[in-house]
Amino acid sequence: MGRPRLLDRTRRRRRSARGFTLLEMLITLAVTVIGLTGLLSLHVVTTKGNAITSRSGEGVAIAEATVEEIRNLTLPALFTELGVSALPVDVNLDTVAGRAGVTFNRRVQVTELTAVSTNLVKIRVEVSWTDAGAAPGAEGGIHDHRVSLELIRTASESL
Fold first, then answer.
1. pLDDT at residue 131 in the model
2. Does 159 map to a domain?
3. pTM for this predicted structure
4. Does residue 17 carry a pLDDT above 80?
5. Residue 129 to residue 104: CA distance in whole angstroms
6. 130 lies in which domain range?
7. What is the pLDDT of residues 57-105, one digit of tens each?
8. Distance separating alpha carbons of residues 97 and 66, to the nearest angstrom
9. Is 61 within a domain?
10. Is residue 79 part of a domain?
11. For the chain, how many structural domains are there in total?
12. Could you tell me which residues are beta bridge partners of residue 97?
């Protein structure tokens, strides 16, 4: 009676000590590869999203800086700066080079608000850029982005 139990224990130890089969290892490898592929795609999407957000933030900062430059000028000084003589103004300013080779285009529009008052002007600053090195309007404009800031000031004071 004592011997069969001893043999059973020995056989159980041998079976449990055999390790993994090749099939088990292949299944484990396949599950691991699928999981890592999912993590890699999540990383790629997150990186692209961060890059788009960074460019948008940079575009807003350029628009704000342009508005501040314009606000420090009187209307005659703005005309001189932009090379125009009267309202309405619609001028493309010099481009601004951003990080990672992105070029930001700036546009300034100044119009009178005569329906409200003869002394009010609306200033609109637009900053536009394209992603992925695409030309503006390429692929139906899916890579085009634009940020606009507007403010209303009196024509008699600094804008």
1. 85
2. no
3. 0.73
4. no
5. 5
6. 2-154
7. 999 999 999 999 998 888 888 889 888 988 899 999 999 998 888 899 9
8. 14
9. yes
10. yes
11. 1
12. 103
- In a 13 Å sphere around the CA of 109, the CA atoms on its Cβ side amount to 9
| CA gap 150, 156 in Å, rounded | 18
According to the per-residue pLDDT averaged within each range, which of 7-11, 32-36, 151-155 is highest?
Answer: 32-36
Is the CB of residue 124 less than 8 Å from the CB of residue 152? Answer: no
DSSP for 124-157, please give it.
EEEEEEESTTPPTTGGGGTTEEEEEEEEEEETTS
- In single-letter form, the type of residue at position 36 comes to L
Contact of 44 with 36, CB cutoff 8 Å: no
Other C-beta atoms within 10 Å of 63: how many? 21
Report the half-sphere exposure of 140 (CA within 13 A, side-chain side): 1
Q: φ and ψ at 132, to 5 degrees? A: 55, 25
- For tokens 């005569």, the residue is 114
SS3 of residue 108 by DSSP:
strand
Which tokens sit at 20? 């993994």
pLDDT in tens, 23-67: 999 999 999 999 999 999 999 999 988 988 999 999 999 999 999
